Amino acid sequence: MSDTAHTLTGRIDGDVAPARVRDYIDLLKPRVMSLVVFTGWIGVVIAPVHVHPFKTLLAVIAIALGSGAAGCINMWYERDLDALMARTRNRPLPAGRVAPDDALGLGVLLSVFSVLLMAVSTNLVAAALLAVAILFYVFIYTIWLKRRTPQNIVIGGAAGAFPPMIGWAAATGDVSSVGIALFLLVFLWTPPHFWALALYRSEDYRRAGVPMLPVVAGPRETKCQMVIYTLLLLPVAIAPTLLGAVGWVYGTVALALSLGFIGHAIAVWRTADDETAFGAARKMFRYSLIYLAALFAALPVDLVVSRIAG
């Protein structure tokens, strides 16, 4: 299919080239969305109530659209920073393939629609949590924290921790201790995950003036904080088992994966505070993605095994 067939707007505003479908999809941060959708879906399926598959689908779509909306507004607001960083300079806005007003309009439209869809298809508790997650990511993390404090990831990480709790609320209509445990799991995972990336991308953040912890406090302090957070994460990771939501199939997997995460953090901590740490940091970043995905995948697997065994 030609570029003309993909064009969504025929307008060229200044140096903004015609946008293609792919550019608008990229505005929604599909890689981030995939993890958000997965954790949100797990929150629905492990809830102790039966949820109709169509209702589950609508809840997951609402979570996906809400995540994409927040990502879109984030890209609109941070287009100046993205233009300065090698990792992000080819995104649709800094590359001039999408007009800023179009990106903002899309983000606001999807935000409203996602919350309304959640309210109509599930319940007001889940819709309210989704609205809070979007607003938190846009106003607290993107606008307030990211350019002002090295704690941007620590506090702002709450936005990405909402999806499994939203999924749980979509199924049950409330927020229980299990839903909170799932929230805390992602919340505590986020800092060491992003700091591993920030260690080997620190020059990008320094160039853009973003006060990430490695830039402000240095590699040594960042590595210490990464070890601390992975240690704090271990009891939270096995909390669903301790709370009785799942059994020890999940608990064993969570314990093993968490010990591996701690091991990666210690390996990064033991490296020198220069480029020799980059290899270990890259490995930890990749492991962190596998860690969270495998942890959440183990939750429904545990339930299936328990039903077969029982």
What does this 3D model show about the protein?
- With 310 residues, the protein is mainly α.
- 76% of the residues lie in helices and 0% in strands.
- It has helices spanning 3-6, 21-27, 30-45, 53-77, 79-82, 100-121, 124-145, 152-172, 177-200, 202-208, 213-216, 219-237, 239-242, 248-270, 276-309.
- Helix 8 packs antiparallel against helix 9, helix 9 packs antiparallel against helix 12 and helix 12 runs antiparallel to helix 14 (248-270).
- The protein starts with a helix and ends with a helix.
- Keywords: Cell membrane, Heme biosynthesis, Membrane, Transferase, Transmembrane, Transmembrane helix.
- Converts heme B (protoheme IX) to heme O by substitution of the vinyl group on carbon 2 of heme B porphyrin ring with a hydroxyethyl farnesyl side group.
- It catalyses: heme b + (2E,6E)-farnesyl diphosphate + H2O = Fe(II)-heme o + diphosphate.
Keywords for this structure?
15 helices; mainly alpha; Four Helix Bundle (Hemerythrin (Met), subunit A); 310 residues
Brief sketch in words of this structure:
It catalyses: heme b + (2E,6E)-farnesyl diphosphate + H2O = Fe(II)-heme o + diphosphate. This protein is mostly helical and 310 residues long.
**What's the total helix number?**
15
Class of secondary structure makeup: mainly alpha
Major beta sheet summary: none
Helix content: over 70%
- Termini Cα gap: 53 Å
Number of strands: 0
What Rg do the Cα atoms give?
20 Å
Overall average pLDDT: 90
Mind telling me which CATH architecture of the largest domain this is?
Orthogonal Bundle
Membrane topology: Multi-pass membrane protein
Keywords: Cell membrane, Heme biosynthesis, Membrane, Transferase, Transmembrane, Transmembrane helix
InterPro entries: Protohaem_IX_farnesylTrfase, UbiA_prenyltransferase, UbiA_prenylTrfase_CS
Transmembrane segments: 32-51, 57-77, 98-118, 124-145, 152-171, 177-200, 226-243, 249-269, 289-309
